[in-house]
Amino acid sequence: MKLMSFTKFALVTASGIALSSAAFAQEVTLKLGVVTPTDHPHSISAREFARLVEEKTNGEVVVTVSDNGALGSNPELLDAVQTGIIDFTVSTPGVLAEYSPAMGILELPYVFQSIDHMMAVTRGDLGAQMGANYQDATGVEVLGYFGGAQRNMITTNATINGVEDLDGLKMRTWEWSVMLDWWSGLGALGSVVAFPEVYTALQTGVVDGAENEFTTFTTARWAEVAKNVSLTQHSITVRPLVGNAGKIAGLSEEYQAAIREAALEAADFDVALEGELDIQNMEALAADYDVVFTEPDKGPMIEASAAVIAGFAADEGLEDLAAAIAAAAE
Fold first, then answer.
1. What CATH number does the domain containing 132 carry?
2. What is the residue range of 53's domain?
3. Rounded Cα–Cα distance for residues 138 and 290 (Å)
4. Is the entire prediction scored with pTM above 0.70?
5. Are 238 and 93 in contact (CB under 8 A)?
6. How far apart are CA 211 and CA 298, in angstroms?
7. What is the model's pLDDT at position 175?
8. Is the C-alpha dihedral spanning 189, 194, 198, 200 positive or negative?
9. So what's the pLDDT on residue 13?
10. Sign of CA dihedral 173, 178, 181, 183
11. Can you tell me the distance from the alpha carbon of 154 to that of 188, in angstroms, rounded to the nearest whole number?
């Protein structure tokens, strides 16, 4: 039997190693879970993040996206990211605050005066420092900030023209005690309902109303069962895209850079998309769902919300952060 030359053997072996390495690289699969419906901007932008990661790594890193709460509620998804069961999620600052409170200030009603104000905070030094502090405290890396949509109130029977109309209403909220305090400060009764269950809760009278973006009112079909929208404009949405810091750090430097670049690009993509959909879905609510809009006196609501912001900041020792965020509007 003729023996293979050393040179030829070395070339064949090297080729085999290269092929094996390439095959191994292509097997890097990461999981991302969100609670929002498939056609919601957070789900769309999560898929854009996945597309960008695959593009920037030449297909060697694949991010699979599970939406519509298939992998759990927001708190469950964040727990799964921290423990490494999944790798990424788009969460709410209020849920993030359960692990480290500073991030929660981004959720508070009327904390931002405009989208420009929100962008100045989340794209500036404040947002970067908040993300770094959160990672140090929790092991969860803040990769970018989705958001930009305005949030308003939607109700089944009540018409909200002012804060007095909220008295005694059962209003859906999520899993954060500060939002319960906010509803209480407005005279309403906060009721925790998981996102996928809100439609049924509105339909059956478990709650009288909820608050969210116009896009949610349409994509989650809340406007099918609730026909009154009050333009409270009480929040500019911020939804951090977060990942398991240890899992990301365990990847090559090239993959880490690609993931972080993709996250920032997807975050800006989401803000632009949410702005466009705000306009489109407000029009759709009137044309397709026969929703009636009211414009309440926001003064008392802003005053009540300022008390919630001040109370939260004092309780958590975040007065300086609250002041810095307020100053960023100037």
1. 3.40.190.170
2. 25-327
3. 45
4. yes
5. yes
6. 15
7. 76
8. negative
9. 45
10. negative
11. 13
